[in-house]
Amino acid sequence: MAKLRQEIDGEVICGDGCSPQILEQVGTSQAALVVAMAHDDEDNLVICRLAKHQFKVPRVITRVNNPRNEWLYTKDWGVDVAISQVHLTAKVIEEEIGLGELVTLLKLNRGEAALVEVRLPDVAPSLGKAIRELQLPTDTVIVSVMRSGKLVIPRGDTTLLADDEVLAVSTVKAEPALKQALLGPA
After folding, report:
1. What pLDDT, in 10s, does the model give residues 129-143?
2. Residue 81: which of 35, 40, 23 has the closest Cα?
3. Which among 62, 131, 165, 183 is most buried, taking Cβ atoms within 10 Å?
4. pTM for the full model?
């Protein structure tokens, strides 16, 4: 507590955030924003409900620790914004993988083949081309395209666009040629 007082320019009060008396003591009714960051989802929900409904705080933000509890974080419980640690972590990983990287999702046939995914960047030689026009390796098949959150079942005349998420099955040996066909030379 002493270390926290040194690092924070303001008043530090030690108490249970689920207690209406503590929330009143810290002046919650005058707050423009309450952020509930407890390690227990139940505590966060109680803090949100009290802040919104009893203390009339206009904006309440909280952390969701267990994604199975996410359905509870509603306006009825006083939650304006729920931030899921799991979803944030997944988003960071997705962004780190980035555009233009062939990612192996699943190994098949004792490691000789794989289900791979690639998100097409804004500049790629495959953009604007129909699948039949691509120089795909013979032991590769494009099995789906996700476009703006919608599944596109690929046909020969399906044209690839920037940000398409292309799912393909390929032998491991053919992956470099698949990558070149979709993304160009490395």
Report:
1. 999 999 999 999 999
2. 35
3. 62
4. 0.52
